[in-house]
Predict the 3D structure of the following.
Amino acid sequence: MTHHRTFETAPTRRRRVLDGIWAFVTDPEDAGVEAGYPERFPDDAERMDVPSAWNATSDYYDYEGVAWYRREFELPNGGPTRLSFGGVCHDATVWVDGERVADHYGGYTPFEAVERLDAGTHDVVVRADSTRDERSIPRPGTDWFPYGGITREVVVESIPEVFVDDLTVDYDLGDGSTDDSPDDQADVTVTVSVRNLGDATDTQVTASVGDTSVEHEVSVDPGLTEVSLTLERDVERWSPTDPRLYEVRAAVENGDDRDERRERVGFRTVDVTDTEIRINGDPVEFRAVNRHEDHPEWGHAQPLRLQEIDLDLIDDAGLNAVRTSHYPNHPRFLDRCDERGVLVVEEIPYWQFDAERFAREGVLDRGRTMLRELIDRDHAHPSVVAWSVTNECANEEEGVVDATRELVAVARERDPNGRPVTLASNNYHPDGEGADPCLALVDFVCANAYPGWYSEGEYADVLAGVREDYPDKPVVLSEFGAGAVAGERTRDGAKWSESFQADFLEDAIETAREAEFVAGFAIWQFCDTRTDPRNWATRPKTKNNKGILDEYRRPKEAYHRVRDLLDGA
């Protein structure tokens, strides 16, 4: 197993994972470039774990801004080298041996640099900037904490002159089943992106799904060449109750050199009717939690053990799905969802944007890039059943509608397997703007609403309002909840008590499950999470306390109530 996934992804490559201690220094005045940090790192630098979030330490708990990292690594043999980053929050620049090799915006998706390096010792320096401003994604004032740092793994790989840059898996499932065979026939297309760092050459490209392979010899010019190979094979479908996975391998051979990359896929269909979300044609009730990558000790940089604990708690409560609020989660977490049959809706961090913010230079371009990178990274995960493009934006504004239309088009064009697209709207509450025109652009409705907490009203009225405007789309009650300070108990179940929260959630869930057009629900939220430190006056403990577990995963009364309510679901 690799550190960043639960299976081997590049077996032919010499790899070194740069986890561990890096030199670290903050740069609140953003003077490091001018001071020459890429070539001469400060002698008085401190130490910081990678991967980690610097805000999970007491020294830098509230620090938002620029910080620098440095470490050395050894290459026993020189040649083409791939340096990849799983995530740097949120604006990253990378230098190797004083040369600028990569720039990337977006803290939750990967990026890389490919360089020719000599054998010996090399120096890598990273500038990470967590500043939020009028053009940042996420924006200032988010109700989650945008941790800074190198929060996911850094990997160095030695690669040949001709190597597999990426692979995409597309498939169609025919009926294929007979009384004698429960399998389905899959027509699979593996598109292999071959990168050639040298001269034009003939290369053999092979694609395999399980024990079925196809190969083709092609001439590849310098740069990138895409080669699509198709094959047919019988498969067992992936489902939440039987999460069958297949290994996909793409390899290139050029002379004595061979390079291979691997992915995994589960074969299944996802579609929607006017009342249902269906997996393989069968309706599935979406029983979900909204989950932030948050923990007091790790922030976004969560170890596998914590990811496993979270999934155990989700499963034990009778839940079957996760909405990744409000950004792409670690791919290893998605691997475990694939393996355990947990459904996932993934989102990009357009949280409460209005038309003015979307119109600012570069903001929409950044979001389109994030969405493409998310889909490119996660398209093969069978657990991911939908893409969500925005959350609680000012969807009644024309500029937001235009931006949403572009994002939906990107999702439909980029995903080879055609997942449904959605967005989360909070227009359906007593103070809302009424009908949400952005919902006309997506396949099913995600409705966020908090009547009885932030406003007056009833959940039945919220759901009826959505249905009146969109009678042809299924509805997911995608956010609802009430805050509870862990341990708070009162005789009369007052607000902020555990019993108030438990009663509140029970009523909302029962209301949602009674409506035939509601395909599921997503509780806000899985666990208590840290919020912006400027929220100290309105958020007890400076946390969003709507978790059914506290920040250390200790159950509140609501967790037990949900588990009892869903027992046998």
Notes: The CA atoms of residues 76 and 119 lie 5 Å apart.
